Amino acid sequence: MAKKKPTAELVKGVIYARYSSSGQRDESIEGQLRDCHAFAKKYGIVIVGEYCDRALTGTSDKRPEFQRMIRDSGKGQFSVVITWKNDRFARSRYDSAIYKYKLKQNGIRVLYAKESIPDGPEGIILESVMEGFAEYYSANLSQNVKRGNYDSALQRQTLGQTVLGLRKGPDKRFEIDPATAPVVRRIFEEYAAGRPAVDIFTDLNAEGFRTSRGNLFNKNSLRRILQNEKYVGVYEFADIRDEEGIPPIVDRELFDKVQKMVERHHRQPAAKKVNGGFLLTAKLFCGECGTPMTGDGGTGRSGQVYSYYICNGRRKHLCNKERAGKRWIEDIVVAKLAEIVNDDDMINEFADRFMEWQAKQKTSSALSGLEQRLKQNETAIKNTMSVIDSGLITDSLKSHLMELEAERVSLEAGIAKERMEAPELERDSVVWFLERFRDGDQSDPAWRIFIVETFLQAAYLYDDGRLLLHLNFGGKNNTVTLKVAEQVVSEGEVLGSSFSPSGAPKKGPGG
User: Fold this and answer.
1) Contact 403, 458 (CB under 8 A)
2) CA 205 to CA 218: how far, in whole Å?
3) Residues 234-259: tens digit of each pLDDT
4) In 118-218, where do the E strands start and end?
5) Cβ partners under 8 Å of residue 482, min gap 6
């Protein structure tokens, strides 16, 4: 009896979509979802969920659906996140690095429906360049939006903001909404009286009340309300701050009392601080046997806790590779990467590779098709005008010319839109974005993740003091060999070593 052919395991994925509030419409979410579903179908990915943040900027990680997706990523229900373009995931390069790092730790890959990131090590750096450009574009867009809204802000107009308890009046300024302002007062008064936040929002939801966006209340939406200065009358935009620019819903004394309670109840480390994690997970390997080195810890007799990387082969008693102190090896790797990004030759070579990729991408993009159609349209208009100039004027020719003119306007608008969504980078811009790594603070956890995830492909550590770094770069200098030495870490028991060889040194990859 013939053996049954094994069925390929299904790749399960989710879609993340987002649009900001600066002139975009809810329909753009539907367009993103449509493209992402088409991408999934093309590559045989089964979509098991969607996460959509509407009218929320990508410059901040305070996006409810995005955070829910990050939390769900640890449940093992999907292995791929599909988003429309790189900037839909995040427009802050630090946020992007941190959250992609978290997803990677959970075995999840991020894919883009409308951007082709090449496979291989250069693709990782390319992705970082695109994130940097998205952040820069977002900052410029924000400045332009603010510039356009400044005059309206001088008149204390709402600028399209929706706030529970307030509404836009006939003069386009905020006024108290008699239907929902009592809900806001109730939230402040109950919280100030010591009622737990979970009880407050549970009751509000049960009674049918909803947030300004029509969603159920939760601890995050409740906290945003409790910290919103608009409820004490403060109007703020750019450098404008008017303490009496909005009709107050609660008095200052109650508001200040609540702020102290919120701070006391919710004090926690900054969201972007990644503490306690092992930075080199899935990137650090044993030079002696080639297996991954993973994070572990121990406690000395004095009670002091030690963190270190240990060879997985050693765990199975198959290798004698010495442990390496966590902070020590991470600091060495980060310092060397910081030195490498100051290498002008590496930056320039990658910039050349990026320009080659961008040229290939342009020829196969929607923009190229629109530009080709515009050339054909202009030729048709020119030919039609030649016929008319020759004296042959008919109603059908006039009608045809009007149709061509309308098509030209539509094509020009489409081209402008495509260029806004996927602007072409000059080579100098690519170099500039890569050089921005040089300004990083080596003690900043977010920056450490950023540079390691972008530039490091793998690191091999040997007991004879060699450390080989393989970079996400296909150039001639993609492998760096260092000679390092580690001090003995001891507290009644040895948890580290000075790299006394535990066996004959083996030649590592590229070494």
Assistant:
1) no
2) 9
3) 998 777 889 999 999 999 999 999 99
4) 166-168, 174-176
5) 332, 336, 466, 467, 468, 469
Instruction: Give yes or no for a contact between 312 and 292, defined as CB atoms under 8 angstroms apart.
Output: yes
Position 359 in a domain: no
**Which contacts of 324-330 are long-range, i.e. CB under 8 A and separated by 24 or more positions?**
324/284, 324/293, 324/461, 324/486, 324/496, 325/486, 325/489, 325/495, 325/496, 326/278, 326/295, 328/486, 328/487, 328/496, 329/280, 329/284, 329/461, 329/467, 329/486, 330/279, 330/280, 330/448
pLDDT tens per residue across span 133-163: 555 544 444 454 455 567 788 888 888 788 9
316 in the same domain as 222: no
Q: What is the mean pLDDT of the chain?
A: 76
Q: How many helices (H) does the chain have, and how many strands (E)?
A: 16, 15
Alpha-carbon distance of 433 to 351, in angstroms, equals 10
Q: Which helix (H) or strand (E) holds 466?
A: strand 466-471
Q: Is residue 295 part of a domain?
A: yes
Confidence class for position 268, pLDDT limits 50, 70, 90: very low
Q: What is the mean pLDDT of residues 59-64?
A: 62
Contact 294, 105 (CB under 8 A): no
480's enclosing H/E stretch is strand 479-483
Give pLDDT tens digits for 381-399: 888 888 777 777 777 877 8
Co-location of 67 and 119 in the same domain: yes
- The reply to whether 338 and 446 lie within a common domain is yes
62 and 115 in a single domain? The answer is yes
Tokens representing residue 63 in the block: 């996006």
Q: Strand (E) positions, 189-292?
A: 235-237, 240-242, 284-286
